[in-house]
Design brief:
This protein is α/β, with parallel strands linked by helices and 240 residues long. It has a single domain, classed as Rossmann fold (3-Layer(aba) Sandwich). It contains six helices and eight strands. The strands form two sheets. Strands 2-3-1-6-7-8 form a six-stranded mixed beta sheet, with helices on both faces. Strands 4-5 form a two-stranded antiparallel sheet. 35% of the residues are buried. It binds guanosine-5'-diphosphate and magnesium ion. Guanosine-5'-diphosphate (GDP) binds next to α1. Magnesium ion binds next to α1. It is an enzyme of class 3 (hydrolase). It catalyses: GTP + H2O = GDP + phosphate + H(+).
Amino acid sequence: MRLIHSMTTIAECSTPDYSLPNRAIKIAVLGAGGVGKTALVVRFLTRRFIGDYERNAGNLYSREVQVDGEQVTLQVQDTPGAEMSDNGALLPDHVSCSLHWADAVVLVYSVTDRRSFELVPQLHQTVSRCATSGGRAPPVVLLANKADLLHLRCVDQEQGPLLAATLGCTFYEVSASEDYSQVHGAFHRLCCQLAKQRPPLPPSPPAPAEKRRPKSPNVQDLKRRFKQALSAKVRTVTSV
Ligand SMILES: Nc1nc2c(ncn2[C@@H]2O[C@H](COP(=O)(O)OP(=O)(O)O)[C@@H](O)[C@H]2O)c(=O)[nH]1
Ligand SMILES: [Mg+2]
């Protein structure tokens, strides 16, 4: 086991190439403390499960990924654990900011932690509130983590999908420790959905039209007068 200190903010980022015409897909991961948010993000981005993670780190990870054959900058905001309060989910200010920032939100609870499951509706409400003030509702995915801990389960398998249906979000039951493909599948499908929703790249600006120098009015005038003079001469000649 290794404490994941080295993976500091954007440490997983291969330097983005800003010359590429791609746009970032931004995902915020939210849930109670200890449900496995960091484990899930690290698993998705590195394929690894380390087992011991810096508590409340709330790092932002950035990666270049291929989505439907297109290179995309993926940014994932891991957040410190949310807590329940009488007035709803208690979130630090910067977490509320990341909800405004995010294109999509992944809500996580642990099947071994009843309170983390009960916190989900409050968190979803907070996400909706941020969406209302930002003018758009981001897609929300609900992840039930730690599915491997069968003997410690206290949220039934049917309850997750039911809650997801009520909230109108997609649902996956996963285990960050046991199964990379489920975790990858959940995040990857969300990325594909977001990539499809992206507005098309703005058309490149038209090439500057070749500027014609306006003819000098004096030259024009001179030409006109020269023509007049010529035609007068011709008239004179013919009349003779
Ligand atoms: N058995 C098991 N343990 C997990 C799983 N996901 C995370 N953990 C453990 O749960 C603890 C908290 O995980 P962490 O990612 O730090 O939770 P966070 O506070 O939500 O970021 C750590 O000891 C992890 O090793 C899982 O799917 N199965
Ligand atoms: Mg964490």
